[in-house]
Amino acid sequence: MIRIALVGDIGSGKTFISRLFRYPVFNADESVAKIYLKNKKVYHKLKKELPEFFTKFPVKKNELIKSIIKNKDNIKKISTIVHPEVRKDLQKFTKKNIKKKVIILDIPLYLENRLNKKKDVVIFIQSSRKEVLKRIKKRKNYNKLVLQRLKKLQLPLKRKKKKSHYVIKNNFDENFARKKVQNILDKIL
To answer: Which end of the chain has fewer CB atoms surrounding its CB within 10 Å, N or C?
Structure first.
């Protein structure tokens, strides 16, 4: 099985590109959303760690945002609780798809959390800052301070790009992106 990991800036289009590969995709953001919605163990840990913010199950996005705004260290506390559960989901996904030729990893903190394996193929998704900001501002719970704090968890983009095997310049044109994806798949396979 070939593991292809997509890295890049928040809002660069990793999820958009991941779907164009037409292979099973592990989406860490979807995993986290499911954990907040269904995992009572995580909720109880969050409530114990940050009782003023987490008062009722399931965990709501506005509670997370308030806790991150209140104290920049809260994002690390939340991550420490949630990331082990995401790793478990990734392990389940990998086992489920063990016979697939390729799997796609859409994990925003893939390099930062040292999820990379030696044989993984890393693709940097590059988008114009202007386009990225425009897209992020359209998100339902957009908050500039939260975005800044999330970005501080990430490696600098230059470093991510340097650690990557390929770069896809994403202009959010599906036909253009599909050709880039196919070109890379042809080289890998």
So the answer is: C
